[in-house]
Amino acid sequence: MENLVRGQCLCGAVTFRISGQFERFFLCHCGRCRKDSGSAHSANLFSSTAKIDWVSGQENIRTFNVPGTRHIKCFCAACGSALPSYNSNDDVLVVPAGSVDSQIDILPEAHICYSNRAEWDDNLDTLAKIDGLPK
C-alpha cells in the first residue's frame, strides 16, 4: 500500500496530498531556515520520489527564492504558513513537517547547520514543560 500524507496551511485555504515515502527528516539551524520558520530551526521532510497533489488553494501559493541560493520558501498568501516546495536544482520535494496533518513514519535524524544555531538555543530541554498556555 502506498503511503499517503495529507496537509494544509493554517487557514485551510491550501490543502495537499503527498504520495510516496520521505527519505530524510532534518532540523536545520541555518540563518535562512531560522528566518523563514521564525523559530530556532526548520523541521523539513525530504523526498526524491514522492509526488504532491495540490487539492485546493493552489492560487494562494507564493514562492520566494533567496537570490543566489538554493533556498526556497513556499507559503500561503492568506495566512503565511509554510508549504511544501519542489527544489528542481536538487530534484527533491521539501515538506515543512508542521504543515503535515497525517501521521508520518519517520523521525528527525539530525540537527543540521548546528554551529549556526541561535545563541539562546542551548539546554532547552531543561525548561519547564507546560500543557497549554502559561498563566
How would you describe this structure to a colleague?
It is a single chain. This protein is mainly beta and 135 residues long. It has a single domain (4-118), classed as Metal Binding Protein, Guanine Nucleotide Exchange Factor, Chain A. Helices cover 5% and strands 37% of the residues. It contains 1 helix and 11 strands. It has one helix at 31-37; strands spanning 4-8, 15-19, 24-28, 42-47, 51-56, 61-65, 72-76, 82-83, 85-87, 92-96, 110-112. The strands form 3 sheets. Strands 9-10-4-3-11 form a 5-stranded mixed β-sheet. A hairpin with a 6-residue loop joins β6 (61-65) and β7. The protein is globular.
Question: Which SSEs are present, and which pair or pack?
Answer:
Elements: E1 4-8, E2 15-19, E3 24-28, H1 31-37, E4 42-47, E5 51-56, E6 61-65, E7 72-76, E8 82-83, E9 85-87, E10 92-96, E11 110-112
For the record, the CATH architecture stands as Beta Complex
Determine the strand fraction and express it as a percent band: 35-45%
Per the principal axes of the C-alpha atoms, what is the gross shape? globular
Helix content: under 10%
If you compute it from the alpha carbons, what radius of gyration comes out, rounded to the nearest whole angstrom?
16 Å
CATH class: Mainly Beta
Q: What is the total domain count?
A: 1
Secondary structure tally: strands: 11
H-E string: EEEHEEEEEEEE
* Span of the ends, CA to CA: 46 Å
Question: Average pLDDT, to the nearest integer?
Answer: 94
Regions with little confidence, pLDDT below 50 for 5+ residues: none
Number of helices: 1
Strand-pairing-aware structural class: mainly beta
Strand order of the largest sheet: 9-10-4-3-11
**CATH topology tier name:** Metal Binding Protein, Guanine Nucleotide Exchange Factor, Chain A
* Largest β sheet strand count, sense and barrel closure: 5 strands, mixed
